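Re: the request from the purification team.
They wanted to know what the chain is likely to look like in 3D before they choose a buffer screen. I agreed to run a prediction and write the result into the notebook, where they can find it.
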Amino acid sequence: MSFGDNCPHCHGPLIEIDHYGERLIGCIKCNLWGWPGSNKPFMSLPGDDLQALSNLSNARHKAEDTSP
């Protein structure tokens, strides 16, 4: 999507994912996804895929946490 770096709905960060070989850009919170360069989302991820993506994001944040 070409909205900059933030979701136009919740203003959260947009991320890029590989969804079964297709590159998509979207928002985990809103579950709205589109192709890079498109001007609007065209799909939502199924619940299982969204949960897996959320779990990966949480694991990454824990690995990056450097607080004592």
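For the purification team: The beta strands are 15-19, 22-27, 32-34.
Please add any questions underneath this entry.
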